[in-house]
Specification:
343 residues; alpha/beta; Leucine-rich repeat, LRR (right-handed beta-alpha superhelix); eight-stranded parallel β-sheet; 12 strands; 36% helix; 10% strand; elongated
């Protein structure tokens, strides 16, 4: 073992001139923030087995903060101000056995952040602000420390209680790991708090979960196949009946417009036809009509078996169509007595 102790040195950055063969590095009680520069320097100390960053100024644990420390077995980051732990913060720590995150400002933890920790045996989350914690996928975990957090012992914490009671994990300081909410459950341990039957009914059984997963997969496959068929039909098949509906609407509009147009224009045409019977003949039309008879006198002689009297009658009937020069048409309905009185 190669130990290096740099505690209380008021360091703001991890020094880069440390022995590259260091295995135990203690940087506690400094001002280190574990920023990008610090994480790049840490990559050089790939032989580290123990790293202590107690009481520094760390706020965020970024992705791959310890990516090259594959030999690390103990990581202690207690008494900082950590409130955000990114998804891949512990990537590469495949041999880590003890993780200390106590006395920080962690509000919630995604259980997936512990997935890379295949050999973790101890997890210390004491003294944070955690009120809810889902079951982590830590198959080799032996000891967990959770006291000092404001636990909300509603139905959501029932999974954690079942896990603590059925697994081989030991809850340290069980008697002081108490509920803070709701008030009626205060002073109960999170491992022994009594839950109502309604909380158990909200938990899906393994059979129900399998059925739900199978149903979801079947429904998703059915939906996808239906969507693919619809896409193929829309690309290669006919358009369906929507075009017929559109044509029907257009024809209805056209026919209705035509009927309205006819209803408006029909009285005008009717009046025009009535006025056609009272049209006056022009003077040149009368002359043309008379000339037609004078130029063809033979037409009268061609009438068989007619005497002079009949000819005179026909001639008088033909000349009855001639209009007088005054241009007026005699109206038989004018009362002659009234006309004399007016004169």
């Amino acid at each position: 073992e190669v130990k290096c102790n740099f505690t209380k040195q008021n360091y703001y950055l991890i020094p880069a001139d440390i022995n590259k063969e260091v295995t135990i590095l203690d940087l506690s009680y400094n001002q280190i923030t574990l920023n990008i520069t610090d994480t790049s320097i840490l990559q050089m100390y790939y032989l580290l087995t123990e790293l202590y960053l107690i009481e520094n100024s760390i706020i965020i644990l970024c992705n791959n903060s310890f990516g090259n420390l594959s030999n690390l077995r103990i990581l202690n980051i207690c008494r900082n101000s950590i409130h955000i732990i990114q998804q891949g913060a512990f990537t590469g720590l495949t041999k880590l056995q003890q993780l200390y995150l106590c006395q920080n400002k962690i509000l919630q933890l995604n259980p997936d952040i512990f997935v890379p920790l295949k050999n973790l045996k101890l997890l210390n989350l004491q003294g944070n602000l955690i009120s809810y914690f889902d079951v982590p996928q830590l198959f080799h975990l032996e000891l967990i420390i959770l006291h000092g957090n404001p636990w909300n012992c509603s139905c959501n914490l029932l999974n954690l209680q079942n896990w603590l009671n059925t697994s081989n994990v030991t809850l340290e300081n069980e008697n002081i790991t108490m509920c803070s909410y709701p008030d009626i459950l205060k002073y109960y341990s999170i491992k022994t708090v009594p839950y109502k039957a309604e909380c158990y009914s909200k938990l899906p059984s393994p059979i129900t979960e399998d059925l739900q997963i199978n149903f979801q997969s079947i429904s998703n496959s059915t939906f996808n196949s239906s969507l693919n068929n619809l896409t193929r039909n829309s690309e290669h098949g006919p358009l369906g009946k929507s075009w017929a509906f559109l044509v029907g609407v257009v024809m209805t509009v056209l026919v209705t417009s035509l009927l309205i147009f006819i209803a408006i224009k029909l009285p005008i045409w009717y009046n025009f036809l009535l006025s056609y019977k009272h049209h006056h003949l022009e003077e040149h039309e009368v002359e043309t009509y008379e000339d037609g008879f004078t130029q063809n006198p033979s037409s009268l002689s061609q009438i068989p078996d007619t005497n002079s009297e009949d000819t005179t009658v026909i001639f008088e009937q033909l000349h009855s169509f001639v209009v007088d020069d005054d241009g007026f048409i005699e109206d038989k309905y004018i009362d002659t007595h009234e006309l004399c009185e007016e004169n």
